[in-house]
Write a structure and sequence with these properties.
about 575 residues; Nitrilase/N-carbamoyl-D-aminoacid amidohydrolase; Rossmann fold
Amino acid sequence: MRISIHQTHHTVAAFDDIFKYLKQAVGDSKEDTLHLLPELFLTGYPLQDLCLQRSFIDAYLEFQKEINDWSTSLQKQNTCFLFGGLDYQFCGDTDGVPRNIKNVIYKLIPGQKIEAIYTKKLLPNYDIFDEEKYFTKGDKTGVLNFCNHKIALLICEDMWHSSVHQIDPVSDLESLNQKFDLVVNLSASPFNLHKNDKRTQRSLEIANRLNAPYVYVNRVGGEDEILFDGNSFCVDGTKEVFNLKSFQQDMIELECPIYNGEKSLINSKIENTWEGLFSANLIDTQNGHIPKLKPLDDNLCQSIVDALCFGVQEYAKKSYFKKFVVALSGGLDSALVLALLKLSLKKGQELEAIFMPSQYTRDISYDASKEMCKRINIPMHVIPIMGAHNYFRDMFKEKVGESIEGLTDENIQSRLRGLLLYARSNQSDALVINTSNKSELAVGYSTIYGDSVGAISLLGDLYKSEVFDVSRYINKKYGEIIPVEIIDRPPSAELRADQEDTDSLPPYDRMDAILEGILSYRLSGKKLVELGHDPIEVETVLNLYRKTEYKRIQFCPIIKLKSKSFGFGYRVPITKDSTYYMKS
């Protein structure tokens, strides 16, 4: 038996494109071949409330009928396709309300109708996932016989187990006491840093528990802020037999691997539960040292660059934009965003920067911005805001009778820049790319409707200290794209004279560790202080964090890089009493 792995890349609900791919794959298939395609191949993933909308349901059911009509018209062939899809079961009335929706593996054999042969058992219900809201879990173990091979079936999360829900699909397969020739997992597994290592380790464990090679098939795609990286692979029990590309559609065909396992490779110290998939990014405290973020090595930096370049291109393509515009300030965040966009550009796309100096903008900001645009060969439009700023101040005082001072005056400058940025966006049909980082977002260090604007955020899952790591890596790898003056200068919003970020915030290396403790470790203020953080800094950061939920809820989508990020997987009430942070 041969196996053919299809790492596919399709837009959600692009039924015509999906059908075209399936027809081509069946037409090219050879005898005695098992074809494996990702979870929910027929629809894309995630679907959210789309799977409940009547128009989607009708279109999907018609699509299934077309597949059945086509498949039954084909000449019979000893080849088998396994792919993911939805299986709708409806109420008895005629209003089309689904009684159950199942996430299933369909079997297609040319000359026959497609058949649902396995239903996903472990429905993830954490972070970005809420499958229990939509799907009905399966209760039967999946085994397929094809070409005298016995094949165990899993869907994505089924490869893990839940200590909370007491569900372990792999143990269910073990309990059958059968000899398997292959274990397959059809997945739609979102990307985050470090996840590939966990997938591989768990796959080796499964291969050795079931004494069979393990094939993992994942989809590719950028769905708003969620990325699917592909990286499909097979392990034979001791090593990887193959590993497909990251963030690219890919395919491989080979003879079915033979199990060659070593039980000693199983690392019993790793918690292979879905609850254990999250890993915070702190260095453990030793000898009273204050916790800090783990540094990003070159491999992680390259993964971040690849993910962000892929993510922004997916968002632009699926939003029908071919131009990008960025507000360039002379600071590191906007410079890194420009560098990433330049690295991502495709043929026919355009990128430009807008530099909008105020009376507080330093000469180094202009010089560094000009040099940055020169190095990456893009236009920089200079639009000073001093005139508009002074006119607004005078008009406000005349009409309201009060002068604009302090923070209000700073926010006006930021919002004027947002106004000009979107004027250019409307004029040139360009996508505005946000330049805020995760540190700023966490403590609200940005102006709502000002420098927080944008259609998509590239840096919203990178702390400021990590922005430095990635910037230095890009310069090392791609040839000094970002002027060193931008990297070395102290961060500043330049909204008042001689302003620096540390006037309002703790140093980023200390603040970022506090924020990671709050977000990923779910630590209280009291616990953070016990770990060695300065009590005043902890209280300052917690107060800023809890008071700025209203800003985060209005922020643009953030390309997700970490296991715990702001955005779709972070759902916290805006209005709440938060005094418990420092008490517990």
